Amino acid sequence: MHICVIGGGLTGLSAALRLSGAHTVTVLEMDAEPGGCLSSYRLPDYAIESLYHHCFSGDVHLRALISELGLSERLEWLKGSTGYMVGGSISPLTTPLEILRYPHLSLLEKIRLGLFVLGSKKADYETLDEIPAERFIREELGDQIYRSFFEPLLKSKFGERRSEVSAAWLMSRIAIRSDRGSEGERLGYIKGGFVELIDALLLRLDEMGCRVETGHRVSSLQAVEDGWMVDGERYDCVISTLPPQETGRLSSLPLPSLPYQGSACLTLATSSDPTDGIYWVNIGDSAPYGAVITHTNLLPFERYGEHIVYIASYYSGTPPDDCEELFISDFCSRFSIPRSSIHWHRLRIEPYAGPVYLTGYRSMIPDPHPAPGLFIAGMFSSENYPERSMDGSVAAGEAIAQSVMEWSP
After folding, report:
1. pLDDT of residue 309
2. Which comes out higher in pLDDT, residue 247 or 175?
3. Which CATH architecture has domain 2-53+194-257+359-406?
4. Coil, strand, or helix at residue 191?
5. CB 20 within 8 A of CB 208
6. Which of 109, 115, 348, 363 has an alpha carbon within 20 to 30 A of 262's alpha carbon?
7. What are the contacts of 400-404 at 24+ separation with CB within 8 A?
8. Rounded to 5 degrees, what are φ and ψ at 377?
9. What is the pTM of this model?
């Protein structure tokens, strides 16, 4: 078969890898570089992801792919540190002692929170899918723990829709992030960046005869007899990794419009460390962004020669026209960073950064085979429920490839 894969992100490339060789595969990617949300800025001395990334020890599909591509020795495990900025100061929350010293919760509340986190891996996501996270936390842990610990996370991630997000998403997030020892969270990163994973995938696909066409934004998707026409070229079947509503718009099929949110992520390099050695700082104060992630507090500073910082915000609708200047001005003021110490900065706007996991989201997940010869997979797939991840994206790509192989035109 001749198969068209729309979208050259991790899901699309993983699907193409499983189908190439046995089939003729063409990947159409709208951006100049494949990788989707895992694409990178290629600077003179190093490459760095345009959106912050790390992986987890439980990412079995991603780790298997890394091994298959001969990159296992490049995967290193690092200690991630976290903190909250409240009232203009950062409270570290990495070690048990730091959590005990956290000034915005009582000792009893900290004990209740610790026991709650320990029980997160036993959560029943099917039941929690119908329960709002805010209500669940208030009932289980009380208003103070919700306001001082969970509300900043939900607000930074989902903004005004935070009260609609399901407890299934929150508990999944807690379970994923609870892989930590006494010195912090265990996080994975590929030496040289995840660009090495994308480059290795592209090299393997090229060796298998797969064509990856960049700079191609699909504008037409039409069912024809025994196949599909994509921008005037016929294929036996199509895998679309676009959001379902975008595939529906292109194909005129009544696919569901899932709730998505966008992200505005400013990456910058600076001479000084803004977060006092902490990797991930959630902002509890009022700010135009929800988190500041200092990449060089996870990876060694010496690899880059400058501090790499992500300033991250999620939004609904469209971000402010001046959000780049807004981020920089607030960041410099809030963290006492002279603007002259910023070496470079780049803003990435991603309109479909990820689904909003509202209550009842599980029932919204669309059929991965909505029409003869048309398959859909991506961040919205069941493999990425109840929280999207690189691992879920690889799993979604591999699962949809298997569905194509089992399908008979």
Report:
1. 98
2. 247
3. 3-Layer(bba) Sandwich (3.50)
4. coil
5. yes
6. 363
7. 400/11, 400/15, 400/239, 400/368, 400/375, 400/376, 401/14, 401/15, 401/16, 401/17, 401/18, 401/19, 401/239, 402/18, 403/368, 403/369, 403/375, 404/1, 404/3, 404/15, 404/19, 404/237, 404/239, 404/375
8. -160, 155
9. 0.95
